Every structure is written in C-alpha cells, then in structure tokens.
Amino acid sequence: MSNPGTPGGQPGPQRTTDPVPADPAQAYAELAAGNRRFVSGAPRHPNQDAGHRAAVADGQHPFAVIVGCSDSRLAAEIIFDRGLGDLFVVRTAGHTAGPEVLGSVEYAVTVLGTPLVVVLGHDSCGAVQATREAVTTGAQPLGHLRAVVDAVLPSLRRAEAEGVDDIDGIVDIHIAQTVETLLGQSPVLAAAVAQGRCAVVGVSYRLAAGAVRPVAAVPAATVAGAAGASIPVAPAT
Ligand SMILES: [Zn+2]
C-alpha cells in the first residue's frame, strides 16, 4: 500500500506500509532490494512516516533480525532502506554473539516470528583489527574490550589455519564464524532453521560503496539469485 503524493499532483511525504515478507528467501530479497536502492542513491525511506509510526505502535512484526557490528557507519535501517517495525537490530562491536545477543535473536525468531537472521559485518572492522593487534603484540586489551577480542579470536585462528591474512578476508571468515556461532549456540534458532521457518545469512558490507555481499547462508538457497551470491560460503555444521 502506498501513497505516492497528495491530491493535486504535489509530491507529498513518502508514505508506505510495505507487505511483510513471510519466508526467509523473500525477506532476504527485500533486504537486498533496499540495499540496492541505498547504493544507487534512490532510497524510498519506507515506513518512516507518522502514519506508519502510529500503525505499528500496537505491535511489531519485523521481517529480519540484524546482528550487526556497532560501527557508526553501519546503521541498518539506512543501508537497507527500511523503516519503523521492519528490522529487529542487535549490535555489538564485531557482531560478537554472547548470551544477551542469542537471547535477543531467539526472542525475535520465536515470539515475533521473524523469518530471517542476518549477520552484518564490514570491511576494515575495528574489532577484527583490534583482535589481530592483540595477537600480534601480545598486549592484553583494556577492560571489557577483552571480551570482544576473545570472541573474535576463534575467527582469527580459523583465518590463520586457512592461510588468510588480509583484514577483509578475515572479516568474511568472522562473519561466517558468527553465523556458525548463532546456530551452534542456539538450539532454538537451529530448530527454526531446520523447520524452514527461518534462515541465517552472513553479509559483508563495504563502507565506501554501501553494498552488501552474502558470504554465508544456511540454507544456501536463501540467497540464490541475489547479487554477489555466486560464491556463498556454506558454514561447516
Ligand atoms: Zn566493525
């Protein structure tokens, strides 16, 4: 449903209440379409008007959970061109997934019925760089930053084992590793995926270009046909 303008031909404020995607592949396609609008400089800013704000006040039905890095350049509703009530967003530095993150994902998937979980990482990720620096120098990070470094460390070890040493290659591995962590640590999420009610996709965002590229998907068919999806990395289970 859309309201492209006011009577008389004057362009009014964008007002849309888009249909809610019901299945994982549809939800991913919707996110990918929004990202393409953002990249091309022609965003629609759907679901951001006062009418929609009132419409969703009584309940939320987000079609995707975003488990993203906290990086200030990674605002989910902006880069996927969405609005209020669309995305259930959980962000930590380096999209590390501890108990509260897992609980938040499970809430969205089980209580809200959200059909898609997206791990959103990005090039030049500071959390990955900090972890590499800690390993290289042997210096312990200060305070609770150590928890972030400890959570990223398995991805760094995996990259070493695979002979990957460029930061963006390590980021891709860390995104795939986070997808595995979510599924491995949350039997609730794994069951929803096994039943076809939900999918988990890892995407890598490029800060300068603004585009996302899938690097992992369970099941892989979720991103079939999506731009840049020719080489999805199916995480080992
Ligand atoms: Zn980051």
User: Percent of residues in beta strands?
Assistant: 15-25%
Provide the structure class: alpha/beta
Radius of gyration: 18 Å
Bound chemical compounds: zinc ion
The total of helices stands at 8
Q: Give the tally of β-strands.
A: 7
Give helix and strand order, one letter per element, not per position. Answer: EEHHEHEHEHHHHEE
What kind of assembly state do the chains in view correspond to? Answer: single chain
| Span of the ends, CA to CA | 41 Å
Low-pLDDT segments, ≥5 res: 1-15, 230-237
Task: Please describe what this structure looks like.
The chain has 237 residues and is of the alpha/beta class. The chain is globular and about 55 Å long. The chain contains eight helices and seven strands. The strands form two sheets. Strands 4-3-5-6-7 form a five-stranded mixed beta sheet. A two-stranded antiparallel ribbon has the order 1-2. It is 41% helix and 16% strand. The termini are far apart. The model is unreliable at 1-15 and 230-237 (pLDDT under 50). The structure holds zinc ion. Zinc ion is lined by residues 69, 71, 94, 122, 125-127. Residues 69, 71, 94, 122, 125-127 line the site of zinc ion (ZN).
Quick synopsis:
41% of the residues lie in helices and 16% in strands. By secondary structure, the chain is an alpha/beta fold. The longest helix is centred in the C-terminal third of the chain and has 19 residues, at 167-185.
Entry keywords:
237 residues; two-stranded antiparallel sheet; 8 helices; disordered N terminus; disordered C terminus; binds zinc ion
